[in-house]
Design brief:
Helix content: 25-40%
Shape: elongated
Structural class: alpha+beta
CATH architecture of the largest domain: 2-Layer Sandwich
Radius of gyration: 28 Å
CATH class of the largest domain: Alpha Beta
CATH superfamily of the largest domain: Bira Bifunctional Protein, Domain 2
Distance between the termini: 47 Å
RNA sequence: GCCGGGGUGGGGUAGGCGGUUAUCCUACGGGACUGUGGAUCCUGCGACUCGGGUUCGAAUCUCGGCCCCGGCCCCA
């Protein structure tokens, strides 16, 4: 074969697109139900937009290039930064809070593996300028709602408040560089590595008291009852009070928003310093190594791009991983075709009338296929069967003399004569 | 960027210590069957990922590229 698709990309065929559209529809309905409205940003942006947000190191994971006027351009690796840019360009004077959502593909030059592609889709949202625990709670509620509507029951939402650990850093006067190192290690979720990094031969910080608290903190995972443990642990560090209070309010609001399926997990972190409030991640254990299907949190990103200080809470689903999860979790139900009616003209003389019947059905939103290949009648039934059509309309001369056609139910094999004028109502009734 | 396993008709596969025409299933086309499907039979179409090497001879052995599947790194 001459051409193959580029590494890490995929073609989607009919059945798969059908499923993806269904998921997309559910997510759109959910987000719009919470009064979010859709935006769309370019597939490529100035390279600087992404390096400013994430550092020069990410260039090696970007699809970047110089355009014909020597502009440094990059395909977008995510949509948060473009949204922040859009906000600065267009939305600064719009009444807050602003709710927006997006769905589009992103590009990363990475090694493909399970749940990771070079072109992939993100479905995400931003709540801009509503920094409050209840704002964060509603965002999480919408995330939870999305998963429920997709019938994903094994998803686990892990929530943390980074203000807590930042309060500790402040208390112990930890410099930014060290903070960042610790955050990165916590983010990895590797407790052994953390222990080694704090207590080993070459510790990132020599503050024993801090180390001990950190090691205890990241072990705290559980439902809202672990709040007490956290409070006990932090009672003497008043720099953590504000964050802890916000955290408690968040949890209270979560209950009001009817979110019960969540885990408080002080081990969820982010390596980047613009996260200011809660962070959360959703895992689906069945997915294996790339089990994270969603990440989000509250951050102050816009200031980095030169805007006024404003906080935003958002998250994005890895759309392809959601699809993987649904595939993984689906119960064995057969892939039913959506073709409702197949029209089989018995002879060449009945073709034209068959097309008229087809158009009539389609005008009534009945998914209809009609033979266009001039196959023999027997083959037509075979084909209709392979397509999974529910009903076949047999258009033959004998019946047409009485202004009738035969409609065959492909499940039962039964067949009835129906007047041509009654076809639509006959199909709809069934 | 690193480590492993792979790549045979459209889809799924057998063969693999080199040796005639590369196996089977399925799909697709035609037919047995002049207007009734999922069956049967016949028949047609159609493949060794690419390039170099070893050899009289490579799907098979060897090296490299590309791609796929796992995993590591990374994950904004």
């Amino acid at each position: 074969m001459e051409f193959t698709k580029p590494r890490g990309t995929r073609d989607f065929l009919f059945d798969e697109m059908e499923k993806r559209k269904e998921v997309e529809k559910i997510l759109r309905n959910t987000f719009e139900n919470y009064a979010y409205r859709e935006i769309k940003t370019p597939l490529f942006e100035d390279l600087k937009l992404f390096t400013t947000k994430s550092g020069e190191e990410i260039v090696e994971q970007l699809y970047n290039f110089e355009d014909k006027s020597n502009r440094e351009i990059s395909l977008r690796p995510e949509i948060t930064a473009p949204v922040a840019r859009l906000y600065l360009n267009e939305l600064q004077k719009v009444a807050k809070p602003i709710k927006l959502y997006y769905f589009g593909s992103c590009f990363r030059y990475e090694r493909p593996q399970k749940g990771r592609f070079r072109q992939f889709w993100q479905f995400g949202c931003e709540l801009i300028g509503a920094k409050s625990p209840e704002g964060e709670a509603e965002v999480i509620a919408m995330c939870n709602d999305s998963l429920e509507r997709l019938s994903i029951k094994t998803a686990d939402i892990n929530i943390n408040h980074l203000g807590i650990i930042r309060g500790l850093f402040k208390h112990f006067n930890i410099d930014f560089e060290t903070q960042r190192k610790i955050m990165v290690i916590i983010d990895k979720g590797d407790k052994e590595l953390l222990r080694e990094s704090l207590n080993g031969n070459n510790p990132v910080t020599s503050n024993d008291e801090l180390n001990e608290i950190l090691l205890k903190l990241i072990d705290i995972i559980g439902d809202k009852n672990v709040l007490k443990d956290i409070e006990n642990l932090l009672s003497k560090y008043e720099e953590t009070n504000d964050a802890l209070n916000e955290f408690k309010q968040l949890i209270k609001s979560l209950e009001s928003f009817k979110v019960h399926n969540y885990t408080l997990n002080l081990g969820v972190a982010r390596g980047l310093d613009y996260y200011t409030g809660i962070v959360f991640e959703v895992y689906i254990p069945e997915l294996g190594t790339q089990k994270q299907v969603c990440g989000g949190g509250t951050y102050s990103l816009i200031k980095i791009f030169g805007g006024e200080e404003i906080e935003s809470t958002g998250f994005a689903f890895g759309f392809d991983r959601l699809m993987n999860a649904l595939e993984e979790l689906k119960d064995e139900k057969e892939n039913k075709s959506n073709i409702e009616v197949y029209i089989a003209p018995i002879s060449n003389d009945t073709r034209q009338i068959s097309f008229k019947i087809a158009q009539n059905l389609r005008e009534n939103n009945i998914i209809t296929e009609v033979d266009l290949s001039r196959k023999k009648f027997k083959k037509l039934l075979n084909h209709a069967n392979n397509l999974g059509a529910r009903k076949v309309i047999v258009v033959g001369e004998d019946e047409l003399k009485n202004n009738q056609v035969a409609i065959k139910n492909m499940d039962s094999g039964d067949q009835e004569l129906v007047n041509i004028d009654k076809i639509v109502s006959y199909i709809k009734e069934d």
